Amino acid sequence: FLYWQFEVNRMNKVILVTGANSGIGLALCERLLSVDTEGLQLCLACRNMRRAEAAHSALLTSHPKAQVALLQVDTSSISSVISAAQEVKKRYDRLDYLYLNAGIMPNPRFDVNAFFKGLFSRNVITMFATGEGILTQQDGVTPDGLQEVFMTNLFGHFLFVRELEPMLCRAGRTSQLVWTSSSNAHRSAFSLEDIQHKKGTQPYSSSKYASDLLSLTLNTHYNKQGLYSSVICPGFVMTNLTYNILPSFPAFLWTLFTPIFWLIRMFTNTFTLTPYNGAEVLFWLFKQKPESLDPYAKYHSLTSGLGNNYTQPRKMDIDLETSESLYEKLLQLEREVRKKLKDEQKESPP
Ligand SMILES: NC(=O)C1=CN([C@@H]2O[C@H](COP(=O)(O)OP(=O)(O)OC[C@H]3O[C@@H](n4cnc5c(N)ncnc54)[C@H](OP(=O)(O)O)[C@@H]3O)[C@@H](O)[C@H]2O)C=CC1
Ligand SMILES: CC(C)CCC[C@@H](C)[C@H]1CC[C@H]2C3=C(CC[C@]12C)[C@@]1(C)CCC(=O)C[C@@H]1CC3
């Protein structure tokens, strides 16, 4: 029996989701277990373990036979990412899907004037689809000295992937990385001279545009080794991240707005609104052959006016040259942080 159990575990696909304790990440886990309860090994990689345990219990209540594990990771901390990756290597002998979903939009500022101006302009649909021109954020600096949004949304995930490279690049097998990007990702918010976005007021947009670029370059470097990368946009979903945009609006007020949002959805199918709908594309990608995906496309979750979910690829505004330059800069930063970590460990051994 033990041998059989060992064989089953060995065969089961391993799926790791960062930011899986709420919102879109949790909805993805729920959807995956609904199609295959016993055949998957899910790993919920979360920062807040109290919320992670609640998510774990909720998943096991609806799928008592599921194999769901928890892993602590704070993607804004270099040491946390490295120890989490070491733990993954200890626990599993394969990693089939890595959903890089954790993300923050700290201290958002909603520009009411720009919003009302936008409402009566030709760009109204674009404004609702992307949030462009109406949102800025105030970023912070992590204890490692890096910009918080850049570290949480992009660089922490990049380090995680680099650490897990031996597990992800296995002969005769493919693995998939899926970056939760956004329609808010915009070239104008990103600069190769300031990849951390220290100077601007749109760190969120910059970090998401950087993930679009990074995914492309990862494909050029890793496809031969069986590792594929894609980017997605879940649409506009009501989650903790979006509730935080209008902090004076309690969550229930957002819910009161739902009929208005349904109305807007008649004009823009990007208003997916629920985490279940937002996770549509993440779930869809799980069923695709990675070789068939377009590295220049962002895959979008969309919901029609009648409430039907579907996935659509849209070409991204990216080019290989910029994505290669970003990759070089990230590798350089990786060398620097690893050196700093080594020096610190020499000074005070564990
Ligand atoms: N909602 C929307 O309309 C859209 C969302 N997105 C993206 O979707 C992703 C999921 O967000 P969403 O579900 O909406 O929002 P939630 O706030 O519900 O989820 C964000 C998740 O990220 C986790 N997280 C945040 N910071 C860290 C960190 N430092 N280390 C580890 N985990 C962390 C949170 O965990 P914790 O409990 O610890 O805070 C939480 O689980 C994000 O990347 C977001 O940018 C993209 C487009 C639109
Ligand atoms: C009636 C009012 C309360 C309506 C307010 C609507 C806006 C707050 C939203 C319209 C489009 C939304 C949007 C986002 C945030 C909230 C809106 C600006 C995102 C920027 C959230 C994060 C993303 O990654 C993309 C979203 C695009 C759409």
UniProtKB/TrEMBL annotation:
It catalyses: 5alpha-cholest-8-en-3-one + NADPH + H(+) = 5alpha-cholest-8-en-3beta-ol + NADP(+); 3-dehydro-4alpha-methylzymosterol + NADPH + H(+) = 4alpha-methylzymosterol + NADP(+); 4alpha-methyl-5alpha-cholest-7-en-3beta-ol + NADP(+) = 4alpha-methyl-5alpha-cholest-7-en-3-one + NADPH + H(+); a 3beta-hydroxysteroid + NADP(+) = a 3-oxosteroid + NADPH + H(+). One of its GO terms (biological process) is cholesterol biosynthetic process. One of its GO terms (molecular function) is 5-alpha-androstane-3-beta,17-beta-diol dehydrogenase (NADP+) activity. The chain crosses the membrane at residues 245-264. Pfam families: adh_short. It is found in: Endoplasmic reticulum membrane. One of its GO terms (cellular component) is endoplasmic reticulum membrane. Keywords: Endoplasmic reticulum, Glycoprotein, Lipid biosynthesis, Lipid metabolism, Membrane, NAD, NADP, Oxidoreductase, Steroid biosynthesis, Transmembrane, Transmembrane helix. Pathway: Steroid biosynthesis; estrogen biosynthesis; Steroid biosynthesis; zymosterol biosynthesis; zymosterol from lanosterol: step 5/6. Its main location: endoplasmic reticulum. It is a single-pass membrane protein. It comes from the Eukaryota. SUPFAM superfamilies: NAD(P)-binding Rossmann-fold domains. PANTHER family: 3-KETO-STEROID REDUCTASE (PTHR44442), 3-KETO-STEROID REDUCTASE_17-BETA-HYDROXYSTEROID DEHYDROGENASE 7 (PTHR44442:SF1). Belongs to the short-chain dehydrogenases/reductases (SDR) family. ERG27 subfamily. Binds to the short form of prolactin receptor. This is 3-keto-steroid reductase/17-beta-hydroxysteroid dehydrogenase 7. It comes from Astatotilapia calliptera. The gene is HSD17B7.
